[in-house]
Amino acid sequence: MKFRKALLVLGLSALALTTACSSDEPLPTVMSFNTTAADAAKVVEMIDSITVADMTTEQEIEKIYLAYCNLDESTRELVTNYDKLTGYRKTISELYYTEPKLGSRMDRTKINIGTYCFNPQCWNDEGVQALVDCGIDFIANASYDNTLLDLLDKYGVGAFASGVVPGWYTGGGNPAPANVGTASTALPLSSYETAAANFVDRDCIWGIDLGDEPWSQDIPHFAEIIDYCKEVFPGKIPYLNLLPPLYHYNRGQMYLDGVEIGHIDSYAQYVKADYLSYDQYPYGDLGIDIDRFNDFYAGMIFTSKICNENDMDLWTVIQANSQHGAYLTENQLRMQLGLCLANGVRTITWACWNAGWFDYNIVDSQGKLGDVYYSLQKVNADIDTISLVYSKYYIVTTGAVGLEPLKLTTKSESLKYLPTTDTTLKLSEIKNCSVSEITTSENVIVTAGYFEKLQGEGSAIMFANTTNFWGDTWSKLYWCDDSPSATVYFTVKDPEAKVMAYYNGDAFEPEYVENGQYRLTIGNCDNVFVTIE
């Protein structure tokens, strides 16, 4: 069982989550499993009874998965046809995608997991096997080098190849870097024509890495580059990664029809792509920098809204490395992940693998696995499991529930374009919302993303316990080491609706209270996905 800290409770007859209500801060009640070989045999029989996996059998298959999740760890091993059940669920998830997405080699019907700064010390069988074992699907900024590409082909890892076309990096800084606004001169389209003529394709090449962190002044030219690369590198994703969403809003941005716009708005306006990728690292500096947390939280909500309005998948590069004299903890990884999932993120790239600008990477400079590797391995496995359900839905809106978030202030004034009120979930503004109310226990803040199904009827909510973002003690906030469990109450309008919950992919039935109200408890930095059918 993947459940951490025994926060979610599964019983054989009902998968009910219970809390102790005798104190102001509800605590989870731990119950023991009691399943037998006969229970496993019944699940095997139910799986074998499925003759077709499509939307007509979707609910039946999810009920079988619920029964499987109701088994304890040792009894699960007796379900010898579990791979068949997983295959059925994957097939159904893929049916929700009726239109092809950019990049024919990248399976965009799932949450993809990447990394970057994969340097030559790991260009060997052991190094690439470590990628696979950690659940990494692709490498961004992967060197266009035959030694590496041979290995990626061998192990089935994708690459956004860097070095196929002329590179570009702007980055941050104050004053602005000297190359801001020079892309059209430095990167003429003729140079891409030459690159295409010399390109040798490989199965592992999912995309062409165009560069990193352009400012808004150069994005109109990158829009032309992206259009051109679609033609000369068919089937490959022209990959461009952007600065953090709220960065540089006050520093010499471009104008559209006389109105100043930032790089995220510029990308949405000019680039004809079905994804938007950006990087943001809340644990980036020595000491505790609350600006980074504010920008990370509000910037993700801001960009999710932009992507939703422009029918783009949201991709993000987040942090698995540190320079704080210690590796990041599993809680710190999960805090970032919860916010990603609550905002509809479809591709997550973890920085950095074995190089980059920090000392405590996923793997060290000699290829030795760091402590964070094993935490990341757990988190990635959970992402892969929840993807089978999560990927059937698209994000509608996201916001905070519970205590009013502390005022978001930053020295850089980067939040002046995102009022604090925009971070609060507003159910009343959701058309045909399936939920009438969401409340929480005291002294917690939950970030809730409201989703609807890509095909047919149905909705979902991703709940992430983000209390640490607003903790009274910044050290607790920063390290995510101590936070109350968040008890969430949500009321479903349709009394006949089937409500299912998924904790890191494992299914359970949330506790029913009364009058359409359900209750569940979410641990420190954790998240739960609830579907309403």
Short note summarizing the structure:
The protein has 533 residues and is an alpha/beta fold.
Notable features of this structure?
533 residues; alpha/beta; eight-stranded parallel barrel; six-stranded antiparallel β-sheet; globular; disordered N terminus
List strands and helices in order, with pairings.
Blueprint: E1 19-20, E2 27-28, H1 37-48, H2 58-69, H3 73-76, H4 82-95, E3 112-116, H5 125-133, E4 138-143, H6 146-155, E5 158-162, H7 183-186, H8 189-198, E6 205-212, H9 219-232, E7 237-242, E8 255-256, E9 259-260, H10 263-270, E10 275-279, H11 290-309, E11 313-319, H12 330-342, E12 345-351, H13 371-390, E13 393-402, E14 435-440, E15 445-453, E16 459-465, H14 474-479, E17 486-492, E18 499-503, E19 506-508, E20 511-514, E21 517-522, E22 527-532
Parallel strand pairs: 3-4, 3-12, 4-5, 5-6, 6-7, 7-10, 10-11, 11-12
Antiparallel strand pairs: 1-2, 8-9, 13-15, 14-17, 15-16, 16-22, 17-21, 18-19, 18-22, 20-21
